[in-house]
Design a protein that fits this description.
Number of strands: 0
Structural class: mainly alpha
Shape: flat
Radius of gyration: 17 Å
Oligomer: single chain
Order of helices and strands: HHHH
Largest sheet: none
Helix content: over 70%
Distance between the termini: 12 Å
Strand content: under 5%
Amino acid sequence: MILVVNSIFLIIGILLTFQLVMTFVANLVGHSAISFMKLTYVYNPQTIHDRFINRLFYAIYGIPHYFYTRFMVRYTYWKARLLFFIWSIAFFFVSFIFIAMYGVVLEWLENIWE
């Protein structure tokens, strides 16, 4: 059972790492990073492969892409960049809380099943 829980948390951790890295890249590079992210998205997917690629897009780039484009549509360029930077700091903070919770939950489960 601990192996299943470990595997689930490992997969979530890997996906969270991708999101954090792409958030960092979007903060550094800006619109070029978002344009690069859009290259992997398939509009009007016809095959299962296209749908799978879109799922991977959301798994790897989804959160930073969504918030960056949302801020850019609603605000001016510099205000949107500032809001995205502030959002990124909060996202890093929440991610590290999740990583700490992962360690606590795993330790708790190991103590219960011993």
